[in-house]
Amino acid sequence: MTTLIMIDQPPYGAWTGREALDMAFSLAAFDQSASLLFTGPGVNWLRQTQHAGGIEQKSVEKNLTAAPIFGMDAILADRAACIAYGLDEHSLIEGVTLVDADADLLTDYDHTAFAG
Amino acid sequence: MTDIQTLHILNKSPDHPRAARCVEMMSAEDGLLLTGNGVLLLARGNLLPGASKVFALIPDVEARGLGDLSGNVSSVDFAEMVTLSLQAQRVISW
Amino acid sequence: MSETFTLVITGAPYSSQAPQTALGFAKAAVDAGHQIDRVFLYGDGVHLASALCAPPSDETHWPDEWSRFLTQHKIPGVACIASALRRGLVNETEQKRYELPSANLRAPFEIAGLGEWVEGRIKSTRTLYFHAGD
User: Fold this and answer.
1) Residue A6: its pLDDT value, please?
2) Domain ranges of chain A
């Protein structure tokens, strides 16, 4: 069973994205196939050089770069959203695959979920 | 009732970014089930996806005074929502 | 044919319609002869498991409605431990562990990890999510 976890919220100032990441890590921990798809303002998770100490939060960049180590299949980002937020290969963290978030993409997965 | 590739359950009002994303990610083989504030999409007929099957949860429709459904929207109760969720190959809750 | 569902509730009672829609779905599924493997509360959904909700008497008591439904049909209700602890939902074990003044988890809900969600997902024909609206 393949699962796509979608994150459409920005990385800070909201908790849903973090809880989505926990879901994806949890699937991987139980040897279940899991990928993450970032859309809309959610693509800001994938920007390099986040320093969240000033708002007393952990940088999500570190969590995400660890995703392949924990067995996550893929980190996907909606191409149009990346362009809209000025993200390109120079500003994205490593290991992100750009995709078009459309109906075809959903048919690649048995299960797609948001954390909230 | 024909097969549905993906059943999209939308409970966000039409101005929520996720409502637009949901409609964008639908194909002609998909179904849209409006629940909660998602039924307000019925009052914004021009935003409804033209090609797909559209369903609306009747208590939510009636609560919001939108009982007079247009021809290509089917009202469903919870029992029919259960059936729809099983008929579709996959379900996404937006 | 009898199928199996796992229901995930991520919207809180009294700030979203999620627990109400989920209960409507759950009752219809049971009435149709299907099984509900478990109900998993995640994120703000854990507030449904609070024993301390006291809505006005002319409003539906959703935590109470859910407790009765789960008990009547012997369906496990599980609140995600990470979501619950962050939001102040604890059972007696966690109360002692963190030396908190009281426990407030409503019966028959239990507290457990996301593994419960993963397992429900694997065992069920469909896993449905009930999120907050807007």
Assistant:
1) 97
2) 2-113
The list of chain A residues with pLDDT below 70 reads none
A2-113, CATH topology level: Hypothetical Protein Ychn; Chain: A, (3.40.1260)
Partners of residue C113 in chain A, C-beta under 8 Å: 26
Residues of chain C with pLDDT under 70: none
Structure tokens at C24: 């409507």
Check if A14 contacts C (Cβ < 8 Å): no
Tell me the C-alpha distance between A81 and A60, whole Å. 19
| C-beta separation of C38 from C94 below 8 A | no
- Read off the CATH number of the domain in which C44 is found: 3.40.1260.10
Concatenate the DSSP letters of all residues of A68-85 into one string.
TTTT--EEEEEHHHHHHT
Tell me which residue in C17, C27, C131 faces B78 most closely, judged by beta carbons.
Answer: C27
The CATH number of the structural domain formed by B4-93 is: 3.40.1260.10
The alpha carbon dihedral of B40, B41, B46, B47 has a sign of positive
Tell whether A58 lies on the interface with C, counting CB pairs under 8 A: no
Q: List, for residues B10-46, the tens digit of each pLDDT value.
A: 999 999 999 999 999 999 999 999 999 999 999 998 8
pTM here is 0.95
* Model confidence pLDDT, tens digit, residues B40-75: 999 998 888 877 899 999 999 999 999 877 778 999
Residues of B in contact with C18 (CB under 8 A): 11
User: How many residues comprise chain C?
Assistant: 134
Nearest CB to C133: which of B36, B59, B79? B36
pLDDT at position B2, please? Answer: 61
Residue span of the structural domain in which C81 resides: 4-130
